[in-house]
Every structure is written in structure tokens, then in C-alpha cells.
Write a structure and sequence with these properties.
Elements (H helix, E strand, L loop, with lengths): L6 E4 L2 E4 L4 E2 L6 H11 L3 H6 L5 E7 L5 H13 L5 E8 L5 H8 L6 H17 L3 E3 L4 E7 L2 H6 L8 E6 L13 H9 L1 E9 L4 H10 L1 E7 L6 E7 L10
Parallel strand pairs: 4-5, 4-8, 5-7, 8-9
Antiparallel strand pairs: 1-2, 2-3, 6-7, 9-11, 10-11
Helix pairs in contact: 1-3, 4-5, 7-8
């Protein structure tokens, strides 16, 4: 059975008691996602000029699903009709149906995207079923459990991840996830065009990504965050399945 998170509601926003951290920025979670993950991975430009028929996003920390919904909305607006988005996300503590519904109600502008997703959410969490949404233009694979183990078990059928959303709670509050083994597995599932973006600029994360083969740049963060990190794969250093 999936582990259950302990959620508090503070000013109508979800707060994770175990990690003493927010699920998204209290300034504006939707704008944070757009700035950090969509712009951080240059998805507008890449999807307007999409060469391949499949684009894969990998995420650590599904949380409320806000990142997924924002990416799905942009994909449906920009990507060619015959192209397919595969969104793969890990989550050790999946939210209940009630909590994720309450969280996403904060964003009525996403309701056309969130409604069909919420209708299938509990089934996906409990069964590990991959969801096909929006006339099969978008595939969502939820990997419930430890992020590193989930990604190690992943079979991408000779495809790879094009963009990474490195989310999850703050490295200082969730050190078990932000480990060298995770960065190595991310690198193993990447290709020479892969990019990443993350809200954090923690030194351990920056050094871990560099050691795994990514170039890393600091950018201005969103809201109260002073800095964030983005980058791209510059060298693949071996198969993390062997680590």
C-alpha cells in the first residue's frame, strides 16, 4: 500500500507535516511551475519546433500534480496533434483523492485539464496503471514509492527522458531523495539533448548533477527563492543500473 502523507491546510494551501514544507510556492504555485519547470526547460520553444513524435518528461515528486497539469496544458496548446507526451513521475507519499482535489481546486483555470485527470487518479495510484488522457495525446505514468528505486525499475523501451522536473521537498528537509544514486539514475535515463530544472540551488544538488554529467547554471529563483538551477546533459558517464 502507498504511504500516506500527513497534510495540513494553511491558508487553503497544502503543507506536508513530515517534511515541514509546502507543496508549492505560497506566492503563486501555478506561476512558479511555469517559471521554474516550463521556462526552465524551454518547453515552449522546444514544443513549437518539435522534431520527434514523442517527448518524455521525468519528474521527482508528483505532489499535487500541478506540474503535470501545467505541462499538459502547454502541450495541448503547442505540440503537433500527432505528437505524444509521456509524463513519468515518482511519488513516495501520494495524496488522497480528497486532498489532491482540494489542492487543485485552487486553480480553476486548469479545470478542463484537471477534471479528467482527477477522475482516474485513485485508480492510477492504487494499480500503477498508466493513464492515457486527452485522446491519448498524453500518457501519465505514476511510479509510487522511492524515487531512485522507481526510476531504476523503469523500462522506457529504448526511449529516454527529454526534460526533467526535479521537484520534491527541499533537500534540507528531504535528504533521502536527493542522493548521488538518484542523480546517476537521472543521467542514465537522459539523452544528449536532455535538460533539467529545479527550484533548489542547494550545493549538494548542484554538485550531484555536475558529477552525473550535467552542465548546471544558476538563475534567479521564483518569488522568495533567490536562486534556482537549470542545465543540460553534457556527458553520460555510464549506466546507473550498475551503481
Amino acid at each position: 500500500m502507498p504511504l500516506k502523507p500527513h497534510i495540513e491546510w494553511r491558508d487553503s494551501q497544502p503543507y506536508a507535516s513530515e517534511f515541514q514544507d509546502v507543496y508549492f510556492s505560497t506566492d503563486h504555485g501555478l506561476k512558479e511551475t511555469e517559471y521554474v519547470f516550463l521556462q526552465g526547460n524551454a518547453l515552449t520553444e522546444r514544443w513549437q519546433n518539435l522534431a520527434d513524435q514523442t517527448f518524455t518528461i521525468g519528474e521527482t515528486g508528483f505532489g499535487t500534480g500541478l506540474n503535470f497539469l501545467c505541462a499538459a496544458k502547454l502541450w495541448l496548446e503547442l505540440a503537433p496533434k500527432n505528437a505524444h507526451l509521456h509524463f513519468i513521475s515518482t511519488e513516495k507519499y501520494p495524496l488522497s483523492q480528497a486532498d489532491i482535489t482540494q489542492a487543485l481546486a485552487l486553480w480553476p483555470e486548469l479545470s478542463q485539464i484537471s477534471t479528467p485527470f482527477l477522475a482516474e487518479y485513485t485508480h492510477a495510484v492504487q494499480s500503477g496503471t498508466t493513464l492515457l488522457l486527452f485522446e491519448s495525446r498524453i500518457k501519465l505514468s505514476l511510479l509510487i514509492g522511492d524515487a531512485t528505486l522507481g526510476l531504476k525499475a523503469l523500462n522506457l523501451n529504448h526511449t529516454s527522458v527529454d526534460a526533467w522536473f526535479l521537484d520534491g521537498f527541499s533537500p534540507a528537509k528531504n535528504p533521502d531523495m536527493w542522493q548521488p544514486a538518484l542523480f546517476a539514475q537521472i543521467a542514465a535515463l537522459s539523452n544528449t539533448q536532455s535538460t533539467f530544472a529545479t527550484f533548489t540551488s542547494a550545493g549538494d544538488v548542484r554538485r550531484g548533477l555536475i558529477a552525473a554529467g550535467f552542465s548546471v547554471q544558476k538563475k534567479n529563483g521564483f518569488g522568495k527563492k533567490r536562486e534556482m538551477l537549470t542545465g543540460s546533459m553534457v556527458r553520460q558517464i555510464g549506466d546507473a543500473h550498475d551503481t
